[in-house]
């Protein structure tokens, strides 16, 4: 059986609480869950590194992480939040390090899975853009 593919699995239940997946049916959530891979990170472990090429979109399903650039804390991420979407959209290197601050589990979607989800679920694309705009506004506010 594929990861998260069963009716009412903990993964599909968690996905339905994530804003970017809001409004999707149980069948659609199961499809998304089944296309993901799970990866665990230990506290202090770098999940992605600034400057590296990215092939994955990460959704935190348990734990917490920090986004850092040049040793400076940019933001904190927790269950239901995501990172890695910028690299998959613009094919540029990662813009920051993301480090687990406690044991953390993520669902990871490859670039191909991510692009397929965007095409299949346009509402999800809109929610990702809203989150990216929110992050840009926070960054602009921090620099003003």
Task: Give the SSE map.
Layout: H1 10-15, H2 26-34, E1 37-41, E2 46-48, E3 56-62, E4 64-69, E5 72-78, E6 82-83, H3 85-90, E7 97-100, E8 104-110, H4 111-120, H5 122-143
Antiparallel strand pairs: 1-8, 2-7, 3-6, 3-8, 4-5, 4-7
Helix pairs in contact: 4-5
Features:
4-stranded antiparallel beta sheet; Jelly Rolls; globular; 8 strands; 28% strand; alpha+beta; 5 helices; 144 residues
What's the β-strand tally? 8
| Rough outline | globular
Q: Quickly count the helices.
A: 5
CATH fold call: Jelly Rolls
Give the C-level CATH assignment.
Answer: Mainly Beta
Order of helices and strands: HHEEEEEEHEEHH
Query: Helical proportion?
Result: 25-40%
* % residues in beta strands: 25-35%
Structural class: alpha+beta
CATH superfamily: Jelly Rolls
Descriptive notes:
The chain is α+β, with helices and mostly antiparallel strands. A 4-stranded antiparallel β-sheet has the order 1-8-3-6. The mean pLDDT is 86.
Structure described in brief:
The chain is built from 5 helices and 8 strands; from the N terminus they run H-H-E-E-E-E-E-E-H-E-E-H-H. By secondary structure, it is of the alpha+beta class. The longest helix has 22 residues, at 122-143.
């Amino acid at each position: 059986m594929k990861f998260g593919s069963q009716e009412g699995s903990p993964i599909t239940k968690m996905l339905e609480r994530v804003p970017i997946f809001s409004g999707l049916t149980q069948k659609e959530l199961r499809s998304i869950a089944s296309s993901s891979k799970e990866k665990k990170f230990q506290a202090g472990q770098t999940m992605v590194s600034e400057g590296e090429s990215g092939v994955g979109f990460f959704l935190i399903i348990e734990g917490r992480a920090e986004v850092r650039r040049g040793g400076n804390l940019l933001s904190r991420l927790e269950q239901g939040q995501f990172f890695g979407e910028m690299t998959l959209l613009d094919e540029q290197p990662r813009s920051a390090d993301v480090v687990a601050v406690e044991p953390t589990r993520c669902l990871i979607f490859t670039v191909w899975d991510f692009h397929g989800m965007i095409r299949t679920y346009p509402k999800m694309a809109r929610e990702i853009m809203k989150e990216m705009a929110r992050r840009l506004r926070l960054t602009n506010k921090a620099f003003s």
